[in-house]
Amino acid sequence: xxxxxxxxxxxxxxxxxxxxxxxxxxxxxxxxxxxxxxxxxxxxxxxxxxxxxxxxxxxxxxxxxxxxxxxxxxxxxxxxxxxxxxxxxxxxxxxxxxxxxxxxxxxxxxxxxxxxxxxxxxxxxxxxxxxxxxxxxxxxxxxxxxxxxxxxxxxxxxxxxxxxxxxxxxxxxxxxxxxxxxxxxxxxxxxxxxxxxxxxxxxxxxxxxxxxxxxxxxxxxxxxxxxxxxxxxxxxxxxxxxxxxxxxxxxxxxxxxxxxxxxxxxxxxxxxxxxxxxxxxxxxxxxxxxxxxxxxxxxxxxxxxxxxxxxxxxxxxxxxxxxxxxxxxxxxxxxxxxxxxxxxxxxxxxxxxxxxxxxxxxxxxxxxxxxxxxxxxxxxxxxxxxxxxxxxxxxxxxxxxxxxxxxxxxxxxxxxxxxxxxxxxxxxxxxxxxxxxxxxxxxxxxxxxxxxxxxxxxxxxxxxxxxxxxxxxxxxxxxxxxxxxxxxxxxxxxxxxxxxxxxxxxxxxxxxxxxxxxx
Length: 519
Ligand code: KIV
Ligand code: ZN
What we know:
Elements: E1 7-10, H1 26-39, E2 43-47, H2 53-66, E3 71-77, H3 80-90, E4 96-103, H4 106-113, H5 117-132, E5 138-143, H6 150-163, E6 167-172, H7 179-192, E7 200-205, H8 212-222, E8 226-229, H9 243-252, H10 254-257, H11 268-279, H12 300-308, E9 328-330, H13 336-345, H14 352-368, E10 372-373, H15 374-385, E11 392-402, E12 405-415, E13 421-426, H16 430-442, E14 447-455, E15 464-472, E16 475-483, H17 486-509
Parallel strand pairs: 1-2, 1-8, 2-3, 3-4, 4-5, 5-6, 6-7, 7-8
Antiparallel strand pairs: 9-10, 11-12, 12-13, 14-15, 15-16
Helix pairs in contact: 1-2, 1-11, 2-3, 5-6, 6-7, 7-8, 8-9, 14-15, 16-17
Bound molecules: 3-methyl-2-oxobutanoic acid (KIV) and zinc ion.
């Protein structure tokens, strides 16, 4: 790595997944990991293996699947069991990193750890050494570094580097730092840690004050060469530094920062879309780089300037980030070849069977809708991407409703290859009736916390996208689906969320018979 390359360390699958309501199952994490590899991130922090068997399994699968192409990292506290689990999960990866962390600030030492400075240093050194027996690539994080006394921070950093840490991460765990302050912290370390040149300095900024990206950039100016960030800025509380913003700031202002990343920026928008789709976490319209309005010029004077010369009002081109607008692309008579070409241009690499399924969906859609847009195609593909392994499938539904009728739904669901189950229920409206019927059949009780509908493209015949967030036994699950029929989209979205709750129920309670459900 040259001194002007910034290492992009993506923690969407670890810190990002810690956002409330953003939990992903192994299948979904693999999808995101695949997208991150294509995006070109240098390190994927795949999870915290000791946290749960599901976390262990996801890290293991990601390590096995992608660990020959991208460095896969696992998080561990300075506890032997954590490090053992991280080793176990990473065993299949050729490129592997263990990330050990221990809090160092006075507040954390006194109230959380109840440990003195010497004990912290001792633990940190022992843990780095233990992890080092498994891989050379060791990252150490003094948690809450931004609020740690500078002298003590220097001591911890120096001793963990001496013990074998090759990356020292300086987390602003609670989003307390400001750009100038953080610059000074990194500069102080560079100046006062005698062996600092033997490790890469990394930034890890939270966004509680809305400063995560600014702080990360400031750290780079001070000499940090790794940025920890997440797609769409997902993460604990207000989130982490948004990967797409850091990368595009460095690229757009290469004249100033004089550094570069290996990110394939044209994959930024599709990756953002995928992560939003899988986690159910919407991207705000005016979000920088990947928001729907990020490249929309509304004011007449801007539009006029743009027509004369794009650079008057545009500092990045939409195509540089893979932005897909409302391009009208295909219609009823477009063949499979045209469809395949468009899918490839949109950045998807689909296996033959997945392509065929999406093409079948496209034909069905083309029957209902005159004009098909890029956004429709993306929605169809994403709709298929994450549901292929769901156990419960919707076989059919029927609803009746009206001003003087009791809204009723009748549904047929099938769990894997078991007999089709049928039931009916009433509700406050036809969608509510569908949801209640599903819960009866699957024997799950869910509380609907969020229900969003939006149009995927333009026109009265546009597809509707429904996103739901449900709460089952205190845990949130998300589902998203599209259809030209809003009730059908709602049914599929709800079923996706229930499928996630069902698979977690099965993991924690062992196999369950479905034969008792109403028939
Ligand atoms: O915010 C934080 O301090 C973390 C550490 C585990 C690096 O996420
Ligand atoms: Zn964090």
